[in-house]
Amino acid sequence: MSYQIGGRAPGIADEARGLVAAARAAFARGSNPAVLLGECAHRLEQPLRVALAGQLKAGKSTLLNALVGQDIAPTDATECTRMVTWYRHGPAPRVTAAAGDGARADVAVRRTPGSGGLPGAHGLSFDLSALRWDTAGAHELGHLEVCWPAATLERTTIIDTPGTSSLSHEVSMRTSRLLAPDSDAGPPVPEADAVVYLLRRLDAADIGFLEQLAATHAESAGRQAGSGPLGVIGVVSRADEIGAGRIDALHSARDVSSRFAAELERTGLCQAVIPVAGLLAFAAATLRQREFDAFENLAGVPVDELSTALLSADRFAHPDPRLPVPADLRAHLAARFGLFGIRMAVMLIRLGVRDSSTLAAELTQRSGVDELRSVLEVQFAQRADQLKAHSALTAVARIVAAHPGTRADELLPPIHRLLADVHGFAELRLLGRLRTEELPLSPDDLAELHRLIGGTGIAAHLRLGLPADATPDAVRARAVAAVHKWRARARHPLADQLTGTACLTAARSAEGLVASTAGDA
């Protein structure tokens, strides 16, 4: 059993580096397998790669802007949104077009202002009309690379993908080739370590693509099909639209999320499903004082009169309603915040919010993006080494299996064993199931189990419910007690299979904590 608890003890990342190096040494320098294995080694040292995927107009670019907290991704339906775009951290903003043959060209960035110089609803755009390639000849655009000095991108590279249900088969295939490549083509393993999949509804196209992801990971890792990818979080995007922009729209979206989660997590296709109003989250992150002033003026309008004006975006932006905000500014608010965001902002001001920073914080909290960030932090960011190692190991297994007859063949059994035995992977899968499946445990025991398997963070004191300054002896004592408790629960004769597995997983997590304190004893 391999453990990676709170960053202590040699983890799977080190084992993955050793296996990649051993496999690389088995092939001739400069050969295709050696080059691919070199890319695997390089990938282990890079930030975690998280892809945003979903059907056309699911709100991927808007959610990306909300997560980063800056306007860096075009959201209008242009050629840019039909391309795979990589967002990486960089010292200064720069957008580059990359051709399939290696040629590169700088891309001009243009911003469309909104009403009275306020940020435009569609923000920036990338001008691909006059690319000047750095090498002569005709080049076909492959993908875009955006370097931006955003804190979020320091630890995570975000990949924005085209819609999986685009009218153009070739556009949809760009996403499939990136995340679920065929065994005979494309990269040796999906380019992303984890996926955030955006849903507006749950239909056959969504299920089909998620099953394709699961099958690709299972094939690459040598596991049984249907075991599911390790890092897939579902997002009910544009959640405010589910309730037609009503003030209770997020409650409706949460009910929808629960139904989606019950199906996706039961089948192992998704670890969690979170409702997020991406448009509101991004608008809140970039709220301007003039927008706050407009909301404050609208809050003074009689409730019935404003409700009538907000029956539709067109009605709200029309010059006819006599409201204390100019029609062009109203149109701007509708495009930036949506009807749900306008109603929520006005309600909060009527309830006592008195400044723009407080309003921004309240809108952010109600958008659902904070909950999504929390899930991404616990299930992706804190387990980045595990997810990256999983990508590297599955890639090595696929490369070696495709080029048999070398001493690298001897590495396949330990690679498959490592992928099957690493405990952190079992924790990730169990965290997903606990969101929808009920175990016959008390609320306190459920909370303890969730915490012990890393549901609130992977640091030892967080897993054990101890203060951050707890002594090694205190950590060890609490961990030993947890081992005994959860081992006993797992052996209980009345425990069903899921409960027994969950308790055994918790016991193994506690054992990892005991092992991590051995050097401090």
Attribute tags:
single chain; 521 residues; alpha/beta; two-stranded antiparallel sheet; globular; disordered N terminus
Total of helices:
22
Q: Biggest sheet, strands in spatial order?
A: 4-3-7-2-8-1-9-10-11
Inertia-based shape: globular
Number of DSSP strands?
11
Stretches where pLDDT is under 50 for at least 5 consecutive residues are: 1-10, 220-229
How confident is the prediction overall: mean pLDDT?
Answer: 83
Q: Work out the helicity level.
A: 40-55%
Question: Which secondary-structure class do the elements indicate?
Answer: alpha/beta
User: What's the story with the biggest beta sheet?
Assistant: 9 strands, mixed
CA-CA gap between termini: 22 Å
Strand content: 5-15%
Radius of gyration, in Å, reads 25 Å
What this model shows, in words?
This protein is of the alpha/beta class. The protein has helices at 12-25, 32-44, 60-68, 152-155, 169-179, 204-221, 239-242, 249-266, 278-285, 289-299, 303-309, 313-317, 327-350, 356-367, 369-379, 384-402, 412-421, 423-434, 443-452, 460-464, 472-490, 497-516, and strands at residues 48-54, 85-89, 94-99, 104-106, 108-113, 119-127, 141-148, 156-160, 194-199, 232-236, 272-275. The strands form two sheets. Strands 4-3-7-2-8-1-9-10-11 form a nine-stranded mixed β-sheet. The chain has a two-stranded antiparallel ribbon with strand order 5-6. Helix 6 links the parallel strand 9 and strand 10 (232-236). Residues 1-10 and 220-229 have low confidence and may be disordered.
